Amino acid sequence: MWVARKAGSTKDDAVPSRRAGWFRRHRTEILLAPIVLATVLLLWEGLVLWRGYPSFILPSPVLVARKFLVVLADGVLWYHTRSTLIEIALGLVLGLSTATVLGYLIAKSPRLERILSPYLVAAQSIPVIAIAPLLIIWIKDPNLSKVLICAITIFFPTLISTVVGIRSVEPDLIALMQSLRATRWQILTKLEIPGALPVLFGGLKIGVSLAVIGAVVAEFIGADRGLGYLINLSRGILDTPLLFVALVSLVVVAVLLYGFVSLLEHRLLAWKRIE
Amino acid sequence: MFATIPLAQERVHEPPRASQAMPLVSVDQVERLYDASSGQAATRALASTTFRVYPGEFIAIVGPSGCGKTTLLRILGGLLPPTRGKVTLRGEPLTGPRSEIGYVFQHANLMPWRTVERNIALPLELQHLPKEEVERRARDVLALVGLQGFEQAYPRQLSGGMAQRAALARTLVHKPELLLLDEPFGALDAITRERMNLELLRIRAAYEYTAVMVTHNISEAVFLADRVLVMSHRPGRVVCEVVVSLPRPRPLENMGTPEFARLAQEVRAAIDRQQEPALPG
What we know:
- Chain A has 13 helices and no strands.
- With 275 residues, chain A is mainly α.
- Chain B has a domain at 110-175.
- In chain B, helix 2 crosses helix 3, helix 2 runs parallel beside helix 4 (160-172) and helix 3 (131-144) packs across helix 4.
- Classes of the chains: A mainly alpha (275), B alpha/beta (281).
- The interface between A and B is medium-sized, with 21 and 26 residues.
């Protein structure tokens, strides 16, 4: 509003661009976020100075930052991060593709659901961390076992959201498509996929966060690289600053993945925000 | 394509004599049972029903709720196979959905992720028609139902009446000969419903369709139809027919005439004669 009140404002000023509008709406958050972060870091630094903790118990943020620059420069951090990223990416591809296909078949066939559901419920009630050692024993290739563990963690949330999403498609819309003599492929691509997408994204958001956990679990148990391995290693050699660096990197990976999915959702489900 | 026709300029429409024309649709002793597979006795949704629809006719089907009106309409649309009996379209047996038949559902049934224009274009898109033709025909039919300016709107931005207009436009876009209307205006308020009824008649001037409409509303049935078929309680069947000889075009003022009141009373009496079925003991 203040722009419009300015004397002699040009037309461009009077109609703020979408980006400027977004900035104005979120100004408080944008300004507050760094202040909150800085406050937390200062309290942390203060705590370390006040209590005089040794760095292997609680390193100061300055020490962590210095360690971060060191491992960033010598390529160690990227080496492990890349390994974790590849596992997550392959695990996502494998987990998503199998879960959506099986979920679709279950949604379409009540008989298949009755046959499979006891096993699915049983399998879901076992924590991944409990079956991960088995997979490591059974599968020779350590990379494959890690990808598999990652895939299993995202399998169930995706499977369930696919079933719920496909079942949420309006039966009258299916009748409409049939009355228009749509092929099965047209019903899938023009009705079922777009119709299931809102629910599917809910599952996907949970799934990507779990994928990060799955990768770390796999790396904890048997690996010679990756951020999970780095955490384990730094604990063993009492390099707590390195442990913090690995932790922060994991958080960054998780946040970026979640952000990417949210962005995709924002784009594909733009119609949901129409008032 | 469609000419834009001002309101109340409905063309005079003479339903052909039943004896001289070949029926567009023949329904012969059609019955429908539900769910015989689960071990229980099958429910009879529709008892043996026979009637004809002649080209250019507007038929209204009224009856108590749950009498199988929608089941009958779904069978006519080829969406549901009859358990017994047969339906023919211009003499050929009906085995599934046909492009000559357009179905309008109880709810507007629009895809919320598509704009109005893209919803209306859907039937043509499914037939892989060239993009320019799809767009041109969608625009034409949008104008026909009075939705210009709402091309880029999403269904959730439309009122109930406008959503049902869009649904009607989607059905009209591929120019079906036979329009099946399943209580399309049942969820609308009385004034919007009347306006949509006028609209249905007005559109007939742009192109002549044959229609079978299921409705709860007796005055709607009398206002629109050439013949009103009355169905019995479940399992439903057509028990009587009221011929509506009111001349066309029919303005809304028709509803105030003694003749209209007499016909509506006749339909009401026919429905009332349908006794509640005794509960099975």
